[in-house]
Amino acid sequence: MLQDEFIENLNDADGKTLIDIARNAITGDDKPIDNIPEKLENRAGAFVTLTENNRLRGCIGYLKPVMPLVKAVEKAAWNAAYRDPRFDPMNNDEINRISIEVTVIGELKEVEYKDIRLAVPGKYGVYIENGIYSGTLLPQVAVENNLTMDEFIMETCIKAGMKKDCYKNSSIYAYSAKIFH
What we know:
alpha+beta; Glycoprotein, Type 4 Pilin; Dna Ligase, domain 1; four-stranded antiparallel beta sheet; 7 helices; 26% strand
């Protein structure tokens, strides 16, 4: 349904670099990372998810490509650790216990509900928008919570602050993503 060449061309070495960038941002380590591939300087959206003992500890990101990917990961990591309003700022004791996940976001493409609901859960993220309300769920949320696509879309509506059937009169966008741990 959706092809995203940039996402498909990211590899494990790129993922390791992005994880290193995220960890350095969280720890305040300003040691330069060697040999950052030029493709990681392309504008792309990214989310950084922090977990401790498989429990969410922070998740913040940029859905749209507003800055170079390396900068988006750096800023998202720091904000997830210290500015996620759902959690207290991370302390030094926690830094070595957290797991970092970087999700690189592909291009948002408007889709019809009848089409996206047929996708395999976990293949695409969903972004729903209606006036001042909007929300997204990353593709891995569907898998982690064993959701069907219908349930995933409804949960995205709820996250956006709307009723669970908001998809009936909202704009729906889907996007590919590449996830690195």
